[in-house]
Amino acid sequence: MPKMKTHSGTKKRFKVTGSGKIMKQQAGLRHNLEVKSTQRKSRLNHDQVLSKADTKTVKKLLGL
Predict the structure, then answer these.
(1) How confident is the model over 6-63, as pLDDT tens digits?
(2) 30, part of any domain
(3) How many structural domains comprise the chain?
(4) Which of 2, 12, 57, 63 lies at a C-alpha separation of 20 to 30 Å from 20?
(5) Which residues, other chains included, contact 16 with Cβ-Cβ below 8 Å and sequence gap of 6+?
(6) Does any domain span residue 62?
(7) Locations of Basic residues compositional bias (predicted)?
């Protein structure tokens, strides 16, 4: 059986922490930034833990 290939798009978008959680970048920071407040942009700029429902799928794509 050949090795599973890591999904290229997934490895660019997610990172795995030491404890095994998967982190993602929040949506909403790509355009229309002059409309959004500084506090909102600051809050959106932090990484977020992926939801439990999506974790299984992403781990499979990452080959974990």
Answers:
(1) 999 999 999 999 999 999 999 999 999 999 999 999 999 999 999 999 999 999 999 9
(2) yes
(3) 1
(4) 2
(5) 22, 23, 62, 64
(6) no
(7) 1-15
**Any domain includes 31:** yes
Cα(24)–Cα(28) distance, integer angstroms: 13
16: β partners: 22
pTM tops 0.85 = no
Domain that includes residue 46, residue range: 17-50
Phi-psi region of 63 (alpha: psi -120 to 50; beta: other; left: phi over 0): left
In a domain, 26, yes or no: yes
Which of these, 50, 52, 42, lies nearest to 10 by C-alpha position? 50
